[in-house]
Amino acid sequence: MGTVSKEILEQLVEFDTALIANTIGVIDSTPVHEWYMGSSIQTVTPGLGPTVGVAYTCELDSSTPGGTASLDEYWRLLDEMEKDERPAVLVV
Predict the structure, then answer these.
(1) How far apart are the first and last CA of the chain?
(2) What pLDDT, in 10s, does the model give residues 8-66?
(3) Longest distance between any two alpha carbons in the chain, whole Å
């Protein structure tokens, strides 16, 4: 899939997740078991309304004693998000 414009992302807020997922299933050849989410996925902030944006993801480990993880990649990710004018969602 190509890059999605800011305008298209802003329009997607009008549609529910199921409709968008079903549409992606028609236009994208990714097997359904790789993108399907069950009903256990639910909002933790229902009062904020829908969230639409480019998903930026990273993995952080804050529970390993004496961990030596570097936050360099995390800071790089935040810099990339700041440069992108489209709505964004950070998934950690």
Answers:
(1) 23
(2) 888 988 888 778 877 877 888 888 787 777 777 778 888 988 888 899 998 888 788 87
(3) 47
pTM passes above 0.70: no
Report the C-alpha gap between 91 and 50 in whole angstroms.
15
**66: which DSSP letter?**
T
Give the Cα separation of 92 and 61 in Å (integer).
10
Question: In angstroms, rounded to a whole number, what is the distance separating the alpha carbons of residues 14 and 26?
Answer: 19
Integer Cα distance of 69 and 48 in angstroms: 33
CA 51 to chain centroid, in Å, comes to: 9
DSSP 67: -
The answer to whether 56 and 89 are in contact (CB under 8 A) is yes
Within 6-88, residue ranges assigned H as helices are: 6-12, 17-27, 32-35, 72-83
